[in-house]
Structure formats: C-alpha cells, structure tokens
Amino acid sequence: MNLLNSIIPAFHRSPAVRQGHRDEDLGATIKPHYEIKETEDAYGLTVQLPGVNKAGLEITAEDTTLRLVGKRAWTRPAGWTALYRETTDATYLLELDHDNAIDLDKIRAELNDGVLRVSLPKAEAIKPRKIAVS
C-alpha cells in the first residue's frame, strides 16, 4: 500500500463490482462521502456529490440494496491540459444494504448544490409502539 492510499483510503478508483459482475458502463468509480442519521420514523441519508446535477443522478432501491450513481456534468474543454487537479472525472457509486426495514414506496430525495438528501421512512412493522396496559 502506498502512502497516498494509506492517507486517503476513500478514493477507491477500481471498477465497480456488484454481485459478481462489473458495471462496464461506469468505468472507474469513487465512493462519495455520506452520513446516515436515524429518527423514530425514518433514516436520513446525506451524500456529498459535487459536480452532479439531477440529470446525472440515478437512485434505485431493490430488495435489500439502495444504489446511488452520480455522473458529473463537467466536460473537459477542447485543448485543455490539467497541470494539477484535486478531483477526478470518475462516477460516484454508493451501495448501501439494509434489512427490509425501509418503506420503498415512500422514499424521497432532494439534490441541491451537490448535496443529496434522501429520506428513508421506516416500515410500519419496525416502528416503536406504545402498548396500553389494562
């Protein structure tokens, strides 16, 4: 492991691998920075996706996986040569597994200025209930 990978392990530039097959159309991917918070009624997911607009964002929820793919809208100008660049053109890919505790029909997402906020409501079966004692 080289020094850069030991300092910045979040920059994963290898092709995406999911359940035994490669996503050839994505090429190299980066796992974005994200944060998950939990309340009684829902999970809140905040994902940092700089350079991604609504047209370049794809969110899918299937079985026990939530998958986010964000493609940047920036294109390299003709004749442009980078001398130094801190970011890459790689696609963002985030796959989160859950235990079917999410009501998939009520998921809501909002993208503003490269920050994606997703509300993942809990399924009614797992919400806490107050039980009356007689």
TrEMBL record:
Which keywords are on file for this protein? Stress response
Domain of life of the source: Bacteria
The SHSP domain extends over: 25-134
Under Gene3D superfamilies, the record lists: 2.60.40.790
Q: Indicate the family of this protein.
A: Belongs to the small heat shock protein (HSP20) family.
Q: What is this protein called?
A: Hsp20/alpha crystallin family protein
What organism is listed for this UniProt entry? Answer: Actomonas aquatica
